[in-house]
Amino acid sequence: MTDDDGTARPGPDGLRRCHWALATDDLLRYHDTEWGVAITDDDAMFERISLEGFQAGLSWLTVLRKRAALREVFAGFVPAVVAGFTPADVERLLGDARLIRSRPKIEAVIGNARAALELPGGLAKLVWEHAPEHHTPPERITDVAAATPESTALSKALKRHGFRFVGPTTAYATMQAAGVVDDHLRGCFRGEAGRG
User: Fold this and answer.
1) Under DSSP, is residue 3 helix (H, G, I), strand (E, B) or coil?
2) Residue 184 annotated in ligand binding
3) Which of 24-38, 65-79, 109-123, 179-193 has the lowest mean pLDDT?
4) What is the C-alpha to C-alpha distance for residues 98 and 116, in angstroms, rounded to an integer?
5) Is 19 annotated as a binding residue?
6) Would you name the residues annotated as active-site residues?
7) Does the annotation flag 188 for ligand binding?
8) What GO biological process term is on the record, naming one (predicted)?
9) Average pLDDT, integer, range 46-53
């Protein structure tokens, strides 16, 4: 396998990883410690949905590098706290150069926190209800879907409950990040196929 065929490749320690994880040290750490690890906690799931919403139109690396500041200003992404943010908080956040200063995205996080608190079974439960019955880990990066029928259904369910910035692609990215689907490339040491 060549370096540019989009399959899992050896990292600096010799372990095979997903193609994208080898671009920077930040992505490598995220891939090795978080991406695809099952999340069942509502606060952690809210953070993933919020971060994926911030990514819309940007690279994941941009969001990842601003994550510490985002966690700080959004009170650790605890919905019960974020739901209490006011228009003055929005203005404060728009003035913070460490953040992704998009009014619609910031307002969506606050609105989504309020919507999350209204979910009868919780946010994590709603996301996991949309897990596919069967999912085959991809061979190459080009085999990874941008959206699926399940993520489209999740997007619609979230929107029905008042969430914003949760289109099918954002919903699928959340499912990947939260371990609802295993999109580690075949042979990646972090994926099911890589542990065999």
Assistant:
1) coil
2) yes
3) 179-193
4) 26
5) no
6) 30, 52, 60
7) yes
8) base-excision repair
9) 98
Taking the whole predicted model, whether its pTM rises above 0.90 is answered as: yes
DSSP H helices in 23-167: 25-33, 42-55, 60-73, 79-82, 87-94, 103-118, 123-128, 149-160
Q: What is the pLDDT of residue 79?
A: 98
pLDDT of 96: 98
Q: Is the pLDDT of residue 195 over 70?
A: no
Query: Which token pair is 166?
Result: 């949760």
- The 3-state DSSP class for residue 9 equals strand
HSE-up of 52 (CA within 13 Å, CB side)?
26
* Residue keyed to tokens 């580690």: 184
- Tally DSSP H helices, then E strands, for the chain: 9, 2
Q: What are phi and psi of 43, to 5 degrees?
A: -65, -45
Q: What letter represents residue 61's amino acid?
A: L
Residue 18 assigned to a binding site: yes
Q: Using pLDDT thresholds of 50, 70 and 90, give the confidence band for residue 1.
A: very low
Q: What is the mean pLDDT of residues 15-29?
A: 96
